[in-house]
Amino acid sequence: MKTAITTYKDMIAYFGEHSFKTCGFDTECTSLDYFDLEMTGFSLSNGVDTCYVDIYKNKDRKAMVGLLKELFRSHIKSFAMHNAPFDLKVLHKEGITEVSDKIFCTMTAHHLLNENSQHGLKELATKYLDVVPVTFDNASVRGMKTQEFYDYAMNDALWTFQLMKLFNKKLYELDLNRLFFEVEMPFQFTLMDMMINGVQVNLEELEELRIEAAATKLKLQREIYEMSNIGYSLQPDMFTGEVEFVSKVKLSNQTLDKLFKKRGLVTPYKTKTGAPSYGAETLVHFEGNEFVDLLAQFNIVDKLLGAFIVKLPQHVAKDGRVRAAYWNTGAKTGRLSCAEPNMQQLPKKKKKLTFDYKRIFEVPEGKVMISVDYSGQELRILGVVAKCPILISAFKAGVDLHLMTANIVFQLGIPEEKMITTHPEYEALKEKYEHERYIGKNGYNFPIIYGTTSYGISKNCGISEKEAQVGIDRFFSAYPNVRTAIQRTSDFLRDNWHVRTLTRRRRRLNPDDKKSHRQAFNFLIQGLAADMIRCACNKVRKIGIDNPHWELKQIMIVHDEIVFEMNEQCTDEAVPKIKDAMETAMNLPLRMPVEIGIAKNYSGAK
DNA sequence: GGCTGCGAGACTCG
DNA sequence: TCACGAGTCTCGCAGCC
Questions:
Q1: Among residues A80, A321, A501, A515, which one has the fewest Cβ atoms lying within 10 Å of its Cβ?
Q2: What is the tens place of the pLDDT at every residue in A120-176?
Q3: Average pLDDT, chain A
Q4: Which nucleotides of chain C does any protein CB come within 7 A of?
C-alpha cells in the first residue's frame, strides 16, 4: 500500500498506525552539496506499506522534521539506504543525528557481492526486482507535488528494502557478512563525517599561487616559442586586464613532432595508436636538453594551473570549505575513489619548481591539521600475505626494506644489522647506495606487488632486460615465500575464478585473461590495505566520540593516509591514542607503524 | 562554420 | 605482451544543424 503524506496531521495519524522498525529509507533534497542542502521529502517502506512525506515549502515543515527525528530516536531500529553516507548526511543537515547504527547500505552490499558491475538503484531494481523504473530529471523533481513524483520517490524506499532482503541473504552465503556489518557499515558514518566536514581552503593564498603560476607559465611559454621561432603576441584579457599569450600554433603532438625532429631528437616512445609520443617518458629520455627541460616545466605548471588551481574555487562552498565526494564503491579492489574535486590526486611539491599547492588546505584558528599515514603499508602487507618470515622479521627489526632488496639484487654484501634504520652506519650506507636503493624500491619492491616483468623493470630503471631478470631471480630466491604466494594465488584464481583478501573481500577475474593473475595478487594487497584504512577510521571515530573535547574531525582519506582537524590544545593527549588505534587497526602478525605530521596546513602536515 | 559528445592520451595521486 | 588502482583535463574526430 502506497501513501503520500502532505500534512503534519496526516503524518501523525499515519505513523500512529504503521510500523517502520525495519525499513527502507530514501530522501529527496535540493542540492548534493552539504552547505546548500535541504531535505524536500523522504520515503519509508517496510515491504508492505510505503509512504512518502512531502515537506517541501510545507508550513509545518519544522514539526514534520521533528516527528521524523522522534521516529529515528525511538522507533526505527534498523534501516536500509542506497548510498548510506548521502542519506545520513541529509539527516545530519536536518539535525537528525541520533540514528540507529544498524544500517544496511544496498550500494555497498552490491559492491561486495558484484564488484564488476554498476551499483545504481535503478539498475539494480531492473536487474534483481524485475521492475521498469521511471526516470526523472533530477533538477525537475525539486518541489514537484504530483502523484507521479510521489510514486517515483516511494519506489526508491521500497526497492531499497527489497534489495536489502536479497543482498543480506547473499552476503551470508558468500561469507561477506562480517566484512559488511563489522567494517563497511560502521565506515559509512566516517564517509558521512568527511563529506560534512570538508577541508578549509585559503582562497587568498590560492589566488597568490594562481598569479605566481600564471606568470611562470607565461615566461616558459615565451621562451619555448622564441626558441622555436613560432610567432605569438601578448594581449590583455578583456575583463581582468591580465596578460594573455596568443599564438596560432598550439603545442599539439604534431607541433612537438616537428620541433623535436628539427633538433634531431627522435623519441623511442609511441602512443597506443603508433604515433610518436611526447609525454613524460620522452621528456625524461631527453632530460638535459634545454628545450625539453623547458617543455617539461611548462607541462607541470600548465597542468597545475588548468586542472587544480583554476578549478578549485568552483568546489569551495560559501563557508570556505571544499567537500569532495568519496565513493565507497568506486574501485573494484575496495579502495575509495574521490571526485569533485579528487582529493587523492592533489599535486605534491615538485623538485624543480617552487609551487606548493597543498599549503592552501588549512585549518581554522585554534585547530591543527594532523596527517597520519602508514609507512610501507603495502610492503608490510606483502610480508603478511606471503607469510614471509624474512620480510616479517626484517620489518620487526626495523630494517630499511628498500636497501635490503638492493642488497640482495646487487649483492652489496651489507650485513643485516647495518640496514636497521637506527644503526649508526645506516645513514651513510643509505647515501652511498642511493641509486641501488632507488632501484630496489621502484624497480623491485613496488613492481613485484604489481606483478611486473623483466621488461617492465628494464624500462622503468634504465637497465637491460637481462640484468632485470637476474635481479628478479635474486629477489625471489631471497624471498621464496613471495614467489610461492604469487603462484598459489594464480592457481586459486584458475580453479575458482575469484580470489579473496584476508578480510574475505572478493574479486572475480577471468583466469584466461593474462592480466588477471597480476590483478589477483595485487588485489590481495591493495584490497587488504583498503580495509585496513576502514578499520582504522572506525576505531579512531569511536575514540573521537569518547573525547569530544578533542573536537576531532576526519577530513580526508588518501589511500594509506587519514587527515584530521582537531583542537590544538589536545594534540599531546590525542596523538598517541590515534597512533595506537591505527597501528593496531587490524589483528595482524605485524604492527603497522604510522608516520605523523602536525601543522596548520596540509603541506606542513605531510 | 560552429556546436556537442565521446574516446584517446597525458597528467595527477597512492 | 610487457605495472596495480583511481579522476580529470585537453585535443581531435564524428556527427549534426
A1: A515
A2: 998 899 999 999 877 665 545 556 788 888 988 999 999 999 999 999 999 999 999
A3: 91
A4: 2-12
Separation of CA A252 and C1' B8 in angstroms? 14
Phi, psi of A420 (to 5 degrees): -75, 130
Beta bridge partners of A44: A25, A51
Place of cell 517496510: A46
Delimit the CATH 1.10.150.20 region(s) of chain A. Answer: 378-526
Q: Is the pTM of this model over 0.85?
A: yes
Complete edge-to-edge strand list for the sheet that includes strand A22-29: A2-5, A50-54, A39-45, A22-29, A78-81, A103-105
Q: Are A343 and A558 in contact (CB under 8 A)?
A: yes
CA–CA distance, A376 with A395 (Å, rounded to integer):
10
In CATH, the number for domain A2-196 is: 3.30.420.10
Instruction: Considering all nucleic acid strands, name the nucleotide whose C1' atom is nearest to the C-alpha of residue A342.
Output: C7
Give protein residues whose Cβ lies within 7 A of nucleic acid chain B.
A 253, 271-273, 275, 277-281, 283, 299-300, 303-304, 307, 342, 344-348, 373, 526, 558-561
pLDDT category, A49, cuts 50, 70, 90?
very high
A203-322: CATH topology: Taq DNA Polymerase; Chain T, domain 4 (1.20.1060)
Can you say how many angstroms the Cα of residue A294 is from the centroid of all Cα atoms in its chain? 32
Cell numbers for A441:
624500491
CATH classification code of A378-526: 1.10.150.20
Judged by DSSP in three states, A598 sits in strand
Return residue ranges of chain A for CATH 1.20.1060.10. Answer: 203-322
Instruction: Quickly count: other Cβ atoms within 10 Å of residue A110's Cβ.
Output: 25
Nearest to A384 by CA among A400, A372, A395: A395
Q: Which residue is nearest to nucleotide B14 (CA to C1')?
A: A559
**pLDDT tens track for A305-329:** 888 998 899 899 999 999 999 999 9
